[in-house]
Amino acid sequence: MNLTRHRPDFLLLVTILLLVSIGLLTIYSASMIWAYLQGKPAHYFFIRQCIWVSVGLVAMIVTMNLPFWIWRKLLPLLLLASIGTLCLVLLLPAVKDVHRWINLGPLSFQPSELATLSIIIYASHILAKKQDQLDTFKKTVVPPLVVAGLFALLVILEPDMDAAALIVVTALAILFGSGVPLRHLEKVVLPSALAAVPLVLFSGYRRERVFSFLDPFSEANLLTNGWQQAHSLYAIASGGWTGRGLGRSIEKFGYLPEPHTDFIFSIFHEEWGAIGGILLILLFAVLVWRALRIASLLPDRFGALMAIGIAAMIGIAAFVNIGMVIGVFPVMGIPLPFITYGGTAMLMKMVAMGILLNLSRYTVEKSHQS
Hints:
There is one protein chain. The protein is mostly helical. Helix content is 68%, strand content 2%. It contains 14 helices and 2 strands. A two-stranded antiparallel ribbon has the order 1-2. The model has no long low-confidence stretch (mean pLDDT 90).
């Protein structure tokens, strides 16, 4: 691989560190009361997240210095590990009535996060390898979607339809970014969307999510399935423009269940207001922009597609999570990257950021490209 290496994207690095720092600060504030209500020390969730962030920073530094093409050599191991852990988690005892985590003593591992990163690398590899055959549906579209579909099926069995959807949509984003004709993508997207309808309508809790989303404040929904969304909107509204101030959220006092998880943006907005919320959204926008810029300046197609996939993984998750919190989308189990509490998610996102920073070291400005 004959590419000149230079310093990583400084703005991207600063953006990542800002997002991680904001995440830790928000988890510290959002989780203290919930930890107390669960009979745990007030700093319990914060300290655990600090441990994962520390491990994630080491992983980011390591992957930032690994040449990105090494991921092609590691791909068979990643695919095997993803399939193996996705199957293993289904055989282990359920945690909170679902099979999503593999317990590792005091810590736990979520295989769907590894699967999402693996599909980015696999789809990028296949589409870069067959870039001269993009017009051939069977050779370019089918292979990555078969693997993404297998991962998604195993994740649905956990059950976690939201994480499964993210895996498939991320793969589709890489296909789109590679230049696969839209007519090929239409053959996949339209049937998939139609197939998702009965999964929602004939699944009790998913159907209830949709109906409670339509009117979370109704008498029937407010005390049941609409509780989280209603109190999320209370938090958003009470934050105003400038917020109540750090640590002064009211909704975290038992009103919004597990406020340090998927609805953490509600607490952030309540304490920092619309100005803080907008600035956080801008940080995600900067991260996605830098990732896409890296993709446009990379002379290597495999690396460029990985950058697109990472941008899609972060951007889609942030868009869906914030949309859910503000009441634009129904409740979904998509965490807010770098902000939501979760060890495996943090670790895998930091590995992805390390890969992205490494890719930024091989970009070539357009004026210098031959």
